[in-house]
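Protein modeling request. Please complete all fields; requests missing the sequence field cannot be processed.
Requester role: graduate student
Desired output: 3D structure, token encoding
Chains: 1
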Amino acid sequence: MFKKLEEYDLVIMLMAIALTCFGVVMVYSASSVMAAKRFHDGFFFLKRQSFFALVGFAIMLGTMRINYQYWRKAAVPILLGCLVLLILVLIPGIGGSAGGASRWIRLPGGFNLQPSEVAKIALIMYMAYSLDRKQDKIKQLGAGFVSYMLILLVLLGFLLSQPDMGSALTLAAVAMIMLFAAGTRLVYIVSIFLMSLPFLYFLVMNVAYRKRRILAFLDPWQDPQNSGFQIIQSWLAFGTGGVFGRGLGEGKQKLFYLPEAHTDFILSVVGEELGFLGVIVIIGMFFMLVQRAMRIAVAAPDIFGRFLALGIAVLFGIEATVNMGVVTGLLPTKGLALPFISYGGSSLIISLFAVGILLNISSGLKISSISLKEEK
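Delivered output (376 residues):
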């Protein structure tokens, strides 16, 4: 028997659906001109993103009815399967390349799978499962912290080989926050962060395109026609949008001025067409989504559910914050999509799958009364 809809956290469900539907509209607005020129079909990306959304909604509805305890048993097999995918993506002929990066596995029908998106949810599942089992060892260095670092380093190694530094840093941040929440000594986390700084410096300053991104972040006007071009066009989009925007579909930056207008920089198109108010609404929706996910984590009936919900909440929060920071020039370019809104099947489907897990954890919980329970 299906549970009544009211037993789930409807706020999270509505936020996920609203963000996804809004994303489909904005993908069309941002990509129609480019799609018409490149594919002779202005609806090319709209049709694909609509398909991804429908698949994602179906997966979300199915996942919300699967007892989240199932993922405890599946955590290790899913992580191992993810490692296989991360290996396959590096094999010529299987992994798809673009811009010097091998981040996709080609699928039938012209679709691609991005293993890095699978890696994010796979690591969260595994860590929730392991933190539940190792409660008494989490403060230890060897049996606790180091064991997680070894697994994390393997995943980061594969991601950096693609190369996909944005996903690698996101994965590391999610893992560290989960470990800190579990009770890992802060000195361990700070130490590994300080030890990684020289390596990060080497990865950035010894790779030409990454170095250019940092220099463009510091002063895009030093190279306005090359490395600084994208962020300058993004600023122009936000600036011309003003408070209320030019109007949906009326943006100019998407007319081959702003690179990646329908993917990483789609929020710039939102700012130009719907203005500051439109951006504030999107930020508010993400805030509500993450806040509700955090409350589910607090109210979860067991440690596994608590860390599973926490990891998903942190992932959504980091991805949205970093993407918004990049398009506004507050952070260097990372290549991270805006969850639910940017074009891309892997990101959207995995995000809706994660929402389905949150919904199942929330079933039967009285989220609105968490604060009252805590006071008692």
